[in-house]
Amino acid sequence: MTPRPTAKILITGMSGTGKSTALRALGAHGHRTVDTDTDRWSRWVTLPDGSADWIWREPEMTELLSGPGDLFVAGCKSNQGEFYPRFDHVVLLSAPAEVLLARIAARTDNPYGKSPAERAAVLDHLAHVEPLLRATATAEIDATAPVDEVVRQLEALLRA
């Protein structure tokens, strides 16, 4: 029997869509996962307009995506498109604004989105960034579905 090819899958989307939750569930199923919202994989840069941006570390991400085996990566960075050719699938998790804001308010493992300014930024990103992600995604999953269903759909991409 010929072994199936390995797959690299990016899980992206706005804050509160459940990227980290899906990643934890995939890890519990024995899959290799990487959450890029850490200093190991991402870094702050200052943009020409003086604003800050949290982007992927290019050498580290290149090495990660060059490795063997299936891999689920989660993140949403302005430079992620540079890495799309290295992914077999780019999956957008999406949910309505009220769901995102409720999840962000309830979560205890991530402080982002608690302040009024951050909540406004989430809504701005939903309006302006999510359409860009949707245009470049190879698949979209409704993140209002139960986590087990989201994970089932992500795992199905390993065979696609």
Describe this structure in words.
The structure is a single chain. With 160 residues, the chain is of the alpha/beta class. Helices cover 37% and strands 21% of the residues. It has six helices and seven strands. The protein has helices at 19-28, 58-66, 97-106, 116-128, 130-136, 147-156; strands at residues 8-13, 33-35, 42-46, 52-56, 71-74, 89-94, 139-142. The longest helix has 13 residues, at 116-128.
Tell me briefly what this model is.
By secondary structure, this protein is an alpha/beta fold. The chain has six helices and seven strands.
- How many DSSP E strands? 7
Strand content: 15-25%
As a whole number of angstroms, the C-alpha radius of gyration is: 16 Å
The main sheet comes to: 5 strands, parallel
The mean pLDDT is 94
Shape: globular
Number of helices: 6
Distance between the termini: 18 Å
Helix proportion range? 25-40%
Oligomer: single chain
Low-confidence stretches: none
- The computed structural class is alpha/beta
Task: Give the topology string: H per helix, E per strand.
Answer: EHEEEHEEHHHEH
Kindly report the spatial arrangement of strands forming the biggest sheet: 2-5-1-6-7
